[in-house]
């Protein structure tokens, strides 16, 4: 902290200059740095101050007090030059809660859309063994061919129109546009209790 004498003061403009032996040049002082004092400064007053360099390279006095002059009664317990203000940090306690609510809403929308569009993968159904056709010349293959020769594609598409499981198997393997194998596992009419 420096101590200097007020060399000039323009009361109507609210500023002046302090001469200090410690500094090479006079230091600018503004009235706003002396608000805590009980009176305005006068030329010849000794002033305690700190120096702050501004962006433009010029220096000015800050944290000032006039020697022998009391602080105003409505100011804090310490004179203004001694007060060190810590920056206040305002914490908005509702911000974290609102962010959490927003995240939950976004997740709920995604889940709803995925379920609505059928994009959620469902566990694969239990696969039933599919009968593999026997080799071409075998007795079983000839019997299957003879059985199937009695069926023909006649436009039927649904399980309720079939008379046997063999007929349903023939239709899903040989006829277009059938609607008997909903899960496409090769086994028709799985829910039909008649077969």
Short summary of the structure?
By secondary structure, the protein is α+β, with helices and mostly antiparallel strands. The protein has 2 domains: 2-82, Nucleic acid-binding proteins (OB fold (Dihydrolipoamide Acetyltransferase, E2P), Beta Barrel), CATH 2.40.50; 133-195, no CATH class.
How helix-rich are the residues, as a percent range? 10-25%
Number of helices: 3
The value of Rg in angstroms is 47 Å
What is the chain-wise order of helices and strands? EEEEEHHH
Number of domains: 2
Main CATH class of the largest domain: Mainly Beta
Quickly give the structural class.
Answer: alpha+beta
CATH architectural type of the largest domain: Beta Barrel
Q: How many β-strand stretches?
A: 5
Could you describe the largest sheet, including whether it forms a barrel? 5 strands, antiparallel
What distance separates the N and C termini?
A: 102 Å
Write the layout of secondary structure elements.
Elements: E1 2-10, E2 15-19, E3 27-30, E4 46-53, E5 59-66, H1 94-117, H2 139-148, H3 165-174
Describe the model.
Helix content is 23%, strand content 17%. With 195 residues, the protein is an alpha+beta fold.
